[in-house]
Amino acid sequence: MKQYDAIIIGFGKAGKTLAIELAKKKWSVAIIECSPQTYGGACNNIACNPIKKLVYEAQIADIISQSDFAAQAAFYKEAIARKSELTALLGEKNQTDLTNYPNITLYTGVASFTSTDTVKVTLADGEEELQGKEIIINTGKTEVMPAIDGIDKSKHVYTTKSLLSQDVLPKHLIIVSENSEGLELASMYAEFGSKVTLIISESQFMAQADKDIAGCVQNVFEKRGIEVAVNSRPLSMEDTENGVSLSYMSLADNQTHSLEGDAILAIATQKPATKDLNLKAVGVETDESGAVITNNHLHTTLPSIWAMGDVRGGSSYIYLSTDDCQIILNKLFGNEERTTEDRTPVPYCVFIDPPLAHIGITEAEAEQNGYPFKVSRIIIAGISGSHNLKQTDGMMKAIINTDTKRIMGCTLFCDDAIEIINVVNVAMKTEQPYTFLRDFIFTHPSMSETLNELFAIE
């Protein structure tokens, strides 16, 4: 049996980062991943990098090949090839990053616990048992396809991964989704040139956002020709002579409708990937969803076994997984002050066009909690910088506590939102009054200087 100072189960971004940092401390490290196709984790292979690469490609396509589907399809094929090149490049880099450290050993196989300090790895050509002083679970999440009659029989139903592996642009793409990934892909494929219909079960579009923000996004979607059916439940799907048919019920009036398309993208829900780990046998507790339960230093119910990233449940943001890695390192080698409780507020971004970024609470949440507050809004079309960027859609919105003068929440639906939100995050994290951004000197012309106006409230 091979001995290691640390065994990391899962070769995602956080797993790789932790392995390298431990190797720099002269620890011997084993890192286990189930397949070469998943080296680097979902962000490198399916989600963040591939989707964001295609989002930017779609913006170019929207400019150079409008209303010419043949040209759009040709550009899409080239874009998919460029996306695949990027994914391959990142995968190769991830492996190289590990091989630079002789005290890191990569195992490709399925891991399961046999005791509190021992992991069995089922390899392609046998089994290996590894013993570790510290074991870190970083297996992420696994996809669960929606339960729709006929979904497993159709040749024209895709997951995000399988659709992004095809280089044929759908003429009519039907998207069944319950999360922001569906919004991103709807926006992206519409810009590539597909007709897009988005089916969601929520009673209103973007129910988690304030109504004015959601309405602004929906207006942009409709302007791009994206059809949105809210409060709708998919019933069945079947292949037709020309593609695929989806039957769904509108819960508003209990009427059944059908759609014809040449592809259906069924956005899978996700649950923590703990099924094969044999956690119950060694006493590591999980919640009802299968998420590993940890304390605020990321210890599981056993002090020598840790968990980080999506396998803990909650929001699936790679930057939280990376922060989990830093918390573990601080616990092992630092002053032990870092915990999961000291990183709020946490922003999120939706890579539609223009992008949407949010941090803190919404206006609706401020009202529900009885906070004293004021709201500031700016329509992007009134900002000179938006005309320079040729993107005048969108809105900026801020929620200010009138007692403390601090920023409670901010939503940016505009070009550069994914960058500007970090400026707001710094102000909120350091507990600056809103006047800090009102009076800050930004470069000109820039979208970030609009924060001067957004926070110029009395």
Describe this structure in words.
With 458 residues, the protein is of the alpha/beta class. It has 3 domains: 2-143 and 270-333, FAD/NAD(P)-binding domain (3-Layer(bba) Sandwich), CATH 3.50.50.60; 146-267, FAD/NAD(P)-binding domain; 348-454, FAD/NAD-linked reductase, C-terminal dimerisation domain (Enolase-like, domain 1), CATH 3.30.390.30. Helices cover 32% and strands 27% of the residues. It contains 14 helices and 21 strands. The chain has helices at 13-24, 41-45, 48-64, 69-99, 160-163, 180-192, 211-223, 279-282, 318-333, 363-368, 384-388, 417-429, 435-438, 450-454, and strands at residues 2-9, 29-33, 104-115, 118-123, 126-137, 141-144, 157-158, 172-176, 195-199, 227-229, 232-239, 244-250, 255-261, 263-266, 269-272, 305-307, 348-350, 356-360, 373-379, 395-401, 407-413. The strands form 5 sheets. A 5-stranded mixed beta barrel has the order 1-2-3-4-5. A 5-stranded parallel beta sheet has the order 7-14-8-9-10. Helix 1 (13-24) runs parallel beside helix 9 (318-333), helix 3 (48-64) packs antiparallel against helix 4 and helix 3 (48-64) runs parallel beside helix 6. The longest helix has 31 residues, at 69-99. The mean pLDDT is 93.
